[in-house]
Model the fold of this input.
Amino acid sequence: GRRRGAAVGRGLSLALGAGEVLCRLFHLIDLPLGLFVPDRGRRYALRPGFRGKQPPMGAVTINSQGLRERELPLEKPTGVLRIACVGDSFTFGSGVPEEATFPRALERALGERLRVECLNGGVPGANTEQELLLTRDVLLRYDPDAVVLLFVENDAREERLPLTETELTGAWPR
Done:
C-alpha cells in the first residue's frame, strides 16, 4: 500500500539523484544546442518543436507546447487521471531516454491500476520560481488533476524572479 509506494518513491528519487550527480561530476551530459529559447518571464524555455540529440541518451523531442513530452491534446480525455510533473533536469530526464524519465516511470507505475497521463514539465537548470511560472503558463492548460513538484535542493537558489501577490497566492485565471 502506502508504505510500498513511499519506499518506491524514495528509491526512485535517490537513484535519479545519484545518476545526475555522477553525470555532472564526469561531464557525461551535454545539452543539445538549440534546446532553449529566451522567455520573458522565465528567462528561458524549451524550444517548441525541437528535435535533437543529447549524449549519451540519444533523441530529445520537445512538443509544440515546449515540454519534453509527446503531443497530447490540451483537453483531458474522459476517465483519464492527468498528473503534471514539474521540476528541473531530474524531471526532464537529462542523460536518459524519454521512457526512463520520472514522469514516464510514474505513469507506468500508476498505469497498472488507472488510466493515467503524466506530463513532463522538467526544464534543465530551472529554479522553483521558473517551475511555478511554467506550471501557470503551460501545464495548467492541460487541466491536470494533480501537480507533482520534484524538488531538489538547488531549486531554491537565490536567483529570484519578481512575482506579484496574485502569482504567489495562486489566484490565476484558468
Remarks:
- The chain is about 30% helix and 20% strand.
- Strands lie at 36-39, 43-46, 51-54, 58-61, 81-87, 116-122, 146-150.
- The two ends are 34 Å apart (CA to CA).
